[in-house]
Amino acid sequence: MRKVSPFAVLIFFVILGIGVAVAYGVFRATANPNSGWIAVAAFVVALLVSSAIKVADQWERAVVLRLGTFYSLRGPGLFCIVPIIDMIPYWIDIRVITTSFNAEKTLTKDTVPVDVDAVLFWKVIDPKKAALEVADYQTAISWAAQTALRDVIGKTMLSEMLVGREMIDADLQKIIDQRTEPWGINVLSVEIRDVLIPTALQAAMSMQAQAERERQARVILGDSERQVAQKFEEAAKFYADNPTALHLRAMNMLYEGLKEKASLIIVPSTAVDTMQLGSVAGLSALSKVLAQELTKQVEKARSSKEKEGDRPDVTAL
């Protein structure tokens, strides 16, 4: 029920006040007791005039019926009707309206029960049709959206519903718009907010996704090993035609291993002979032994000098 306009209330009290003032003036001037009828008449006139004045907001349209038949649409702003003869059964809001709806325990095409929540954005573009073609257009559009959602779910696979929501939204909008067009209602958009599936199915889908990721990881690892093997094969062909490159590569690998401390490398004697590294390896081992002996002698001399209170003379060694 629409609230009474403050402007109409103001007009009512103004007319009533004028009538009461006139009745009081007549009573004081003539002392006529029938002057009270002037106040009553003023009350009736004020009531009729205030009921004839209507004010519609910017986003509202008033459906005026005259003696039960459609007469006109009024608003926005100030307008007047004929009291008793005219009536306004509907005030139509032409702004964009949101309506939430859902479908519980609805089977998809692959027989999976789902709960789907969605929201509908719509507006009235023809207030006359919205008032005359359907009893309660807001309730009607809510039920139309819910039944359309159930129809779309029954024709859609679960995987498509979880991934391709944009396509489902477009189908829903098309179906609902076709149903509500005769009511003067335009559907702007439909958006699915959430899709709930059973807990057991969620666990199964999680295991399936994990297995799929593991499979992809194994495929990527195998592909990487294949690529490495191909590179080794290409390198082997290159070294077979270029012994100098193979010699340099072997020396580099041996150097990388020897430069690390406390490392032990076992090299086949044939490889050492091929690379002519026998004398080099011997000299390296000898220099390492001499360095260890020299270090021991320096530490021994230093400890003896410290006992005597003198600093060891390392240069003498």
Overview of this protein structure:
With 317 residues, the chain is of the alpha+beta class. The protein folds into 3 domains: 6-92, no CATH class; 97-197, Band 7 domain (Tetrahydropterin Synthase, Chain A, 2-Layer Sandwich); 277-317, no CATH class. The chain has 10 helices and 8 strands. The strands form 3 sheets. It has a 3-stranded antiparallel sheet. Strands 6-7-8 form a 3-stranded antiparallel sheet. It has a two-stranded antiparallel ribbon with strand order 1-4. Helix 1 (6-30) runs antiparallel to helix 2 (36-52). The termini are far apart. The model is unreliable at 311-317 (pLDDT under 50).
CATH superfamily (homologous) name of the largest domain: Band 7 domain
Under the CATH scheme, which architecture of the largest domain would be assigned? 2-Layer Sandwich
Cα radius of gyration in angstroms: 49 Å
- The SSE order reads HHEEEEEEEHHHHEHHHH
% residues in beta strands: 15-25%
Biggest sheet details: 3 strands, antiparallel
Q: Total strand count, please?
A: 8
Q: Give the helix level as a range of percent.
A: 55-70%
CATH topology description of the largest domain: Tetrahydropterin Synthase, Chain A
Number of domains: 3
Instruction: Label the overall shape.
Output: elongated
Question: Structural class from helices and strands?
Answer: alpha+beta
Query: Which residue ranges are poorly predicted, with pLDDT under 50 across at least 5 consecutive positions?
Result: 311-317
The first-to-last residue Cα distance is 114 Å
- CATH class annotation of the largest domain: Alpha Beta
User: Biggest sheet, strands in spatial order?
Assistant: 3-2-5
Q: What count of helical segments does DSSP give? A: 10
Average pLDDT figure = 80
